[in-house]
């Protein structure tokens, strides 16, 4: 089992490749890997209540752990409760995952 | 033992939130006691360009001092100083070919010139590497 951290900096309305990135996370988790998805910049927009978070929810249903950069949330006025079970984390979260040897991919 | 993390940046300054996020990551790594390598590729070689100048803003009715416009070269200098204050190192390498193409040789003193081979050395010597590409 490998550990993956996929970082998503865009929202689904910006590019079709964003949903493909969610699907990649879901597929890696389905194959037994430990997968986290960290949303940053406009990537946090789908966790706003009322946003279309279905694609994110599909990934979490497959076992992907979902996190959102708390600074990006605050900048955009997005407050709890968050859609798809996203958990806010500081940017330090990415550094911690890098230090524990997780494979980190930016999109 | 002090661990080292490497980041590869490609975006020029003033254009994308990726630059801010990348520098936030460098800051977080230094705060956590890591040495940090940065390989600046393509437009990112302009991030530590020494001739960046703060400017006034006529729309806001403010002069340069009031506007207090931050420049990436100052952030990089501050991150370098923060690393040094902790006994750590921020080793920032600008891709030399990218610098020459862009006429961006005048960088702040802590930055050195290198080549993609330096990126390979960084990767080999680091606990982990994150590439933040343009799109």
Task: Produce the secondary structure layout.
The complex is a heterodimer of chains A (107) and B (135).
Chain A: E1 3-8, H1 16-30, E2 34-39, H2 54-61, E3 65-69, H3 70-75, E4 87-89, H4 92-99, E5 103-106
Parallel strand pairs in A: 1-2, 1-5, 2-3, 3-4
Chain B: E1 4-9, H1 17-31, E2 35-40, H2 64-67, H3 72-85, E3 90-95, H4 96-102, E4 112-114, H5 116-124, E5 128-132
Parallel strand pairs in B: 1-2, 1-5, 2-3, 3-4
Helix pairs in contact in B: 1-3
Quick structural gist:
The complex is a heterodimer of chains A (107) and B (135). Chain A is 35% helix and 22% strand.
What share of the residues of chain B does DSSP label as strand, in percent? 15-25%
> What is the CATH T-level topology of chain A?
Hypothetical Protein Ychn, Chain: A
Q: Major β-sheet of chain A, in short?
A: 5 strands, parallel
* Beta-strand content estimate of chain A: 15-25%
What number of structural domains do the residues of chain A give?
1
The residue ranges of chain A in which pLDDT falls below 50 over 5 or more consecutive positions are none
Amount of helix of chain A: 25-40%
List the keywords:
heterodimer, A: 107 residues, alpha/beta, Hypothetical Protein Ychn, Chain: A, five-stranded parallel beta sheet, 4 helices, 35% helix, globular, B: 135 residues, 5 helices, 5 strands, 36% helix
């Amino acid at each position: 089992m490998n550990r993956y951290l996929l970082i998503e900096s865009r929202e689904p309305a910006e590019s079709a490749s964003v949903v493909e990135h969610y699907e990649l996370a879901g597929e890696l988790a389905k194959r037994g890997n430990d997968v986290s998805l960290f949303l940053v910049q406009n990537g946090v927009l789908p966790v706003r209540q009322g946003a279309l978070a279905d694609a994110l929810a599909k990934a979490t249903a497959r076992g992907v752990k979902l996190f959102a950069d708390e600074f990006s949330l605050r900048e955009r006025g997005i407050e709890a409760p968050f859609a798809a079970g996203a958990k806010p984390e500081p940017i330090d979260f990415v550094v911690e995952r890098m230090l524990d040897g997780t494979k980190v991919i930016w999109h | 033992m002090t661990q080292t993390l490497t980041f590869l940046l490609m975006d020029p300054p003033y254009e994308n939130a990726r630059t801010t996020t990348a520098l936030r990551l460098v800051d977080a790594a230094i705060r956590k006691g890591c040495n940090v390598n940065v390989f600046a590729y393509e437009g990112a070689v302009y991030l530590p360009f020494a001739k960046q100048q703060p400017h006034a803003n006529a729309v806001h009715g403010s002069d340069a001092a009031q506007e207090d416009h931050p420049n990436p070269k100052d952030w990089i200098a501050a991150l370098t100083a923060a690393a040094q204050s902790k006994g750590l190192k921020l080793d920032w390498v600008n891709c030399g070919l990218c610098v020459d193409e862009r006429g961006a040789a005048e960088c702040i003193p802590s930055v050195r010139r290198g080549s993609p081979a330096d990126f390979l050395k960084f990767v080999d010597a680091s606990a982990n590497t994150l590439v933040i590409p343009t799109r």
